[in-house]
Amino acid sequence: MPKRKPRALLLVAMCLASSCGDGGGDARPEPPPQKVPPGCGKYDPSRAKPAPQPITVVHLDPGVPPSTQLAVAACAGLRNRKVSGSVYLDADPHDLGWLSELGLSAATTVDAEPFLASCVEAFPSCVRYDYATQKALLPNVLTAAAALGAVPLDEGQKVRCAAPVFDAVTELADKSTPLLATKYVFDKFGRQTTGLAMLNPGYEQAPSEPRSPALNREMKPALVDLVFSEKLFAVFLVNGCTNGHPEKAALSSIVDAGQWPSPIPVYGYNNSWYVLGGYLYEAQTTCLDSHKMGAVPSEVGNLSFFSTRAPAITEAGAVVQNPAEAVTYDPQKTYVAFVVGDGDNIQYMLTTRRDWFQQRVASCAASPSSCAPLTWSISPHLARLAPDVLGWYYAKSHQTKRDYFVLPPSGHLYAYPSTLAEAAQNPFVAATERDACVLGLTGTVHWDSAGTWRVAADHFLPKYLKNGAIRGIFPVNVPFAFPIFTWWPEEQFFEVQKDTEGGRLAVFKPRSWRGIDSASDAFRLTPQLMAAEIAAYPKGTVTWVYMTSDGGLTLENGFLTLAKLLPPHVQLVSTDTAANLAIASQR
Question: What is the pLDDT of residue 34?
Answer without folding.
Answer: 57
